[in-house]
Specification:
Strand content: 15-25%
Order of helices and strands: EEEEEEHH
Structural class: alpha+beta
Strand order of the largest sheet: 1-2
Helix content: 10-25%
Number of helices: 2
Number of strands: 6
Oligomer: single chain
Low-confidence stretches: none
Length: 83
């Protein structure tokens, strides 16, 4: 990773250089409807009590009831196909 030293201005204070962040894939809007990957429960937005898992390269959300029920499997990092 290349880092440039700060450039000094005529006043002697270092100026900040800005870089554009790399392009990323579009994230779903937090105001969209979320669905549980296990039981199919839906909610407006993404509730704070739900969990998120990345399985086979895709993001899967689980409701709080499913998360509580399968907590040991989640902590053991098992894919949801094994629960």
């Amino acid at each position: 990773m290349d880092q440039n030293p700060p450039q000094t201005t005529t006043t002697g204070t270092p100026s900040r250089t800005t870089t554009t962040p790399p392009a990323t894939t579009a994230m779903p809007s937090p105001l969209s409807r979320a669905a549980c990957g296990r039981c199919g429960a839906t909610a407006e937005g993404l509730p704070l009590t739900w969990i998120c898992s990345v399985e086979n390269g895709r993001r899967v959300h689980f409701c709080d009831a499913c998360a509580r029920k399968h907590l040991r499997s989640i902590e053991g990092r098992l894919d949801s196909a094994w629960w």
